[in-house]
Structures are given as structure tokens and as C-alpha cells.
Amino acid sequence: MKQEYDNYTSEDHKVWSLLYAEQMEHLPGIATQAYIDGIARVQFKPDRVPRFDVINEELADVTGWQVYVVPGLIDNKPFFEHLSRKEFPATTWLRKLEQLKYIEEPDMFHDVFGHVPLLSEPFFCKYLNGLSKIALKHIENETAVELIARVYWFTVEFGLIKEANETKIYGAGILSSPGESLYSVSEEATHVPFDVQHILDTPYIKDRYQDKYFVIESYKQLFDSLEHIESRIDHYVENAIYVAPSP
């Protein structure tokens, strides 16, 4: 598949521009600097749907990652296979104007606006690649897949990072959500230090804001955690420890 850019309608570009404007009104003050720098690097435009060929050309020079077009949600195995090849799966369809506030399945705004800018951060990319290899090692084991899903959820999708003594957002699920981006760094939200076992013990939430957010100190800390993640998941698998799926 490929991005058929000429097929985007005026409504598609308007949807992108409205969502982009809403998020960029406040993200520069609460998002990780790596994300803000990444937006400039991949050349997002405020009024036009991004071109994947432009994004890929820029990423190739920085981390070697590429955006890979998929029709929508894909199974765990092919998803992690793409990540292991430094390919981030992204759909090309956008929500409609009447779906600006909520859609059930992630669209291109989530996939691209939320995830792609951080693909310019080297240690984050190494973490993503390493996590995919751990997942593929145990891809047929339901408990291991659930544990990997929790790790992915609380880092790649809903992670926070400490920068210059301030808590900033790096998780794509937060970055692409108007409400949760403000809530996650507010005094109302519960912030806890990044801890692998704590994450493995925590089911994730899909239908409301998270009960807690894990805060890393650096992207290198995230990358350095891979060995511990792998050893703990190996332990669960080798000892046939059952973990119930997240609700």
C-alpha cells in the first residue's frame, strides 16, 4: 500500500488543520522537547495532511526509521515485525468532521501526529525496536503479549518524561488527545516513577483517562530498561504465570 495523496479531500485537510491547531495551541509548553523538535524535522504543515514521502526522507537521515502504510489496526505479529524493521505502521485515513472529538479506531492523526515526530529521537527509537524483538520472541504466548501491551501502553502511548524539573508528555495517545494532554500533566493526575514491575502489574485503561502515568527520567533510561523488561517477561513465561488481560 501507499499514501494516495491526491485522493485527500478538502475535508481531510480541514480535519487535519483543526486537530493540529487545537493541539499545537498548548503542546509547545507541555510536550517533550524531542517531540517539538521532531515536528519541525518531519516538516508537518498546519493546514495540509502530511506527505509520507517527505517524512520518510527526513527520518532516513536521522534514525533510519520509516512510516509504513497499513489499512488500519493490524495483528500483533505483523505490527511488531514492522517495528523490528524500523517501520512504523500508520494508516492513511482521517476521521470525519463530526468525529473530531472521538473515534474508536486510531486514524492517521493519531498514528502520524502522535507517533511520528518522536521517531527522530535515537534512544526512543532503539527502545521501540528492542521492545518489538522481545514481543516477537514470545508472540504466541498470551501472557507475554499482555505484558508487552502494558509496557507499550504506559510508555509509547501514555508515557511522561521529566525535563528540566518539569513533567512533559511523550506518549502518542496523550499527544493526540486534546483532553488527556492537559489532564495528564495537571495536579489532578497521578504521576509515579517509571518502574518495570509496577507497569507489568498494572492493567491499562481504554475508555477513560489513565489512573496513573509513569514518568521516565530520560529516553536512555527507557532504552536501558529493555534488559529488565525481557528478563521479567521470560520469568512469567518460563514459570507459566497467568496474567489476566486488561479490560
Topology:
Blueprint: H1 10-24, H2 27-30, H3 33-41, H4 52-62, E1 66-69, H5 76-84, E2 87-90, H6 108-115, H7 122-137, H8 142-157, E3 160-163, E4 166-169, H9 172-175, H10 178-184, E5 191-193, H11 196-200, E6 213-216, H12 219-224, H13 226-238
Parallel strand pairs: 1-2, 3-6, 5-6
Antiparallel strand pairs: 3-4
At CATH level 2, the architecture is Orthogonal Bundle
DSSP strand content:
5-15%
Overall CATH class = Mainly Alpha
Indicate the CATH topology: Phenylalanine Hydroxylase
Strand order of the largest sheet: 4-3-6-5
Biggest sheet overview:
4 strands, mixed
Could you report the average pLDDT, rounded to the nearest whole number? 96
State the end-to-end distance. Answer: 33 Å
> What count of helical segments does DSSP give?
13
H/E series: HHHHEHEHHHEEHHEHEHH
General shape: globular
Give the beta-strand count. 6
Oligomer category: single chain
CATH superfamily: Aromatic amino acid hydroxylase
Q: Give the structural class.
A: alpha/beta
The residue ranges in which pLDDT falls below 50 over 5 or more consecutive positions are: none
Radius of gyration: 17 Å
Number of domains: 1
Q: How much helix is in the residues?
A: 40-55%
